[in-house]
Amino acid sequence: MSVLSGKKIILGISGGIAAYKTASFVRLLIKAGAQVQVIMSPASCDFITPLTLATLSKRPVYTQFEKDFGEWTNHVELGLWADLMIMAPATANTLAKMANGLCDNLLLATYLSAKCPVFFAPAMDLDMFAHPSTTENTRKLKSYGNIEIESAYGELASGLIGQGRMAEPEDILQTITDFFNNQSTLDLKGKKVVITAGPTYEPIDPVRFIGNHSTGKMGFDIANEAAKRGAEVVLITGPTYLKSINSSVKVVSVSTANQMYKQCHELFSSAHIVIGAAAVADYRPKVVADQKIKKNDEEFTIVLEKNPDILASLGEIKAHQFLVGFALETENEIEYAKNKLKKKNLDLIVLNSLNDTGAGFGKPTNKVTFIDNDFNVFPQELKSKEAVAKDIIDQIVKSYAK
Ligand code: PMT
Fold first, then answer.
1. Which of 225, 326, 352, 383 to mutate to test the pocket of ligand 1 (most atoms within 8 A of CB)?
2. Cα 395 to chain center, whole Å?
3. CATH number of this structure's domain 192-401, picked from the four choices 3.40.50.2300, 3.40.50.10300, 3.10.20.30, 2.70.70.10
4. Residues at CB less than 6 angstroms from ligand 1
5. Taking burial as the number of CB atoms within 10 A of a residue's CB, which of 39, 80, 185, 299 is the most buried?
6. To test the ligand 1 pocket, which listed residue (254, 261, 280, 321) has its Cβ within 8 A of the most ligand atoms?
7. Which atom of ligand 1 is nearest to the CA of 349?
8. Where is each Flavoprotein domain found (predicted)?
9. How far, in Å, from the CA of 396 to the mean position of ligand 1?
10. How are the residues of the chain apportioned to helix, strand and coil, as percentages rounded to the nearest 5?
11. How many Å lie between the centroid of ligand 1 and the Cα of residue 165?
12. How many angstroms is it from 279 CA to the middle of ligand 1?
């Protein structure tokens, strides 16, 4: 049985072409057993008819105050009735009104009255999406606790290609299913989790750097998992192309090990759990050239100096914090990982070995071994990085509870 069975869901539709997708979304919700109340902005009725949605949702569809209710207060009741409200599509106009408390139709009045979690799935043309006012309105909405279901990149109704396509009904369904599933496992609620991810880039000159193959995926997946389980998450990431991150995660972008060190120390006193998944460069060029270095001699030497060890420095000042490190090894894996656990004063270390096929950098999978601070060793299977992230959080929760 789906977790959506019996859930009361308000689907708020505003006036954009993506409104046509709501027919299949309503069908998916009804098939999952949800009770669906559709509320449409007047403009959305030009894109899909209330009759279609009433037929699919098996309920009358509301569009206006007096016409549908005969009185004006029922938006308050609707707002109290729902377990979840979702605005899909959320046009630039509706987003702006939601962000600023405007209330010139029944849909917006219900949104302002809603006591339940509110999701919104933006849908608009790429330039409208990229406009600073839309970005600001989205930020504002998220700061009020609303949850964005990110729009996709692709061909838009205008024929242009860019970001702004409403997420597909199946993906929206998955997001809210995950939400309800996770409501029962919010075991990190009230905890602040700081996670590092990605490589660091140590500059040689304005165009070159010393880096490594980390993509950031392992750290991003851990951040997503911790956020799903109710934590307040800050992700400090080195350079990466990854974008997909739970909208509640605060992302701090850095480049060098020194910058990552500074951010970690700024956040450490308020953190409950710190997880170091970043591949931090141990050394950096001692001198960074102001201009691009020209090729002259047959050989060229770069003198390196040591970077601070971020986790070790946190281990030294650790009070209540639970400190988790990774170990990326190529030989004597267990022994080296145990040494790092002890030397850096960690509570748990996650070992991944480049000798294991499918483990380590860049890949969508990882194979890890947990070692706790009693030196108990728990080898795990090869899994997707998302599944490994879940195992890591499970292990932390178990150890943290002790
Ligand atoms: O990003 P992906 O492509 O998904 O790849 C994931 C990963 C392989 C990078 C990740 O799973 C991983 O193993 N990260 C740690 C890599 C690493 O630098 O390991 P290490 O054994 O050199 O460092 C041990 C620990 O100390 C790590 O937690 C590291 O973040 C930390 N460290 C290292 C050096 C340093 N100067 N400061 C640190 O805090």
1. 326
2. 21
3. 3.40.50.10300
4. 196, 198, 214-218, 257, 276-280, 282, 307, 309-311, 325-328, 340, 352, 360-362
5. 39
6. 280
7. 28
8. 7-179
9. 18
10. 35, 25, 40
11. 36
12. 4
* pLDDT of res. 353: 95
* pLDDT at residue 398, as a whole number: 86
Q: Rounded to an integer, what distance in angstroms lies between the CA atom of residue 174 and that of residue 180?
A: 10
The ranges of the chain annotated as CATH 3.40.50.10300 are 192-401
350's enclosing H/E stretch is strand 348-353
Q: Which two tokens stand for residue 26?
A: 């309503």
Fold classification of 8-183 (topology level): Rossmann fold (3.40.50)
Q: For residue 196, which of 105, 257, 138 has the smallest C-alpha distance?
A: 257
The answer to the question of whether 311 is labelled as a binding residue is: yes
AA letter at 136: E
The DSSP bridge pattern shows strands 232-237 and 250-253 to be parallel
Looking at ligand 1, which residue's alpha carbon is closest to its atom 14? 277
Count of alpha carbons within 13 angstroms of residue 101, beta-carbon side: 1
Closest protein CA for atom 35 of ligand 1 = 309
State the distance from the centre of ligand 1 to the C-alpha of 197, rounded, in angstroms: 8
According to the model, what pLDDT value does residue 263 have? 98
315: left (phi over 0), alpha (psi -120 to 50) or beta: alpha
Domain with CATH 3.40.50.1950 in the chain: 8-183
User: Which residue's alpha carbon is nearest to atom 8 within ligand 1?
Assistant: 360
Dist CA 345 CA 366 (whole Å) = 24
**Is 318 among the annotated ligand-binding positions?**
no
| CA 76/CA 193 separation, integer angstroms | 36
Q: pLDDT of the chain along its 402 residues, tens only?
A: 788 999 999 999 999 999 999 999 999 999 999 999 999 999 999 999 999 999 999 999 999 876 655 554 577 778 888 999 999 999 999 999 999 999 999 999 999 999 899 999 999 999 999 999 999 999 999 988 899 999 988 888 878 888 899 999 999 999 999 998 877 678 899 999 999 999 999 999 999 999 999 999 999 999 999 998 999 999 999 999 998 788 889 999 999 999 999 999 999 999 999 999 999 999 999 999 999 999 988 999 999 999 999 999 999 999 999 999 999 999 999 999 999 999 999 999 999 999 999 999 989 999 999 999 999 999 999 999 999 999 999 999 988 766
- The number of the ligand 1 atom at minimal distance from the alpha carbon of 368 is 11
